[in-house]
Amino acid sequence: MPHKKCPKQHTKRQTKTKFKEFENILEIRHKNLLEILDSRNGNIKDLHSSALKDDSDLAVAHIQGQLDCLIIEKYALELQEVESSLQKIADGTYGICEMCDDEISTDRLRAKPHARYCIDCREVYEKSQRVAKNDKANDDKATKSVAKSW
Ligand SMILES: [Zn+2]
User: Fold this and answer.
1) Of 9, 93, 126, 137, which has the fewest beta carbons less than 10 angstroms from its beta carbon?
2) How close is the Cα of 17 to the center of ligand 1, in Å?
3) Listed residues: CB within 5 A of ion ligand 1
4) Residue 149: band (very low, low, confident or very high) from pLDDT cuts 50, 70, 90
5) Does residue 42 share a domain with residue 71?
6) Is 53 among the domain residues?
7) For the segment 46-57, what is each residue's pLDDT rounded down to a tens digit?
């Protein structure tokens, strides 16, 4: 969806102090995420350098590796969102929905300080995500039933 305005020309500029509380939370979360990602990357390196005895070890390591990748992906995404929120606080555009330019409620920001959308737009966004996921789930089902018949 195209942005109506350049964020720098936002008319609804927020004062920095208003979001001091969220800035603190985001900075702590940012630090935590960096630590988690650091240690996770370390684990993966350990995994690859450790000597694997047989095929079953290899299979377990492979699954574990895939799981780690998914977790890292999730945290990396959150890290991006946290960083962009911190940038928004610096720019004075924090707390404004990226889709409709409305203010995001403080309650919502308390629940999710790196929220990008207001409640209404979040619902629209999640619905579109769910449709994409359902398509994938159906594909998975089809793959599984094929595997069963083998
Ligand atoms: Zn919105």
Assistant:
1) 9
2) 23
3) 97, 99-100, 118, 121
4) very low
5) yes
6) yes
7) 655 666 667 778
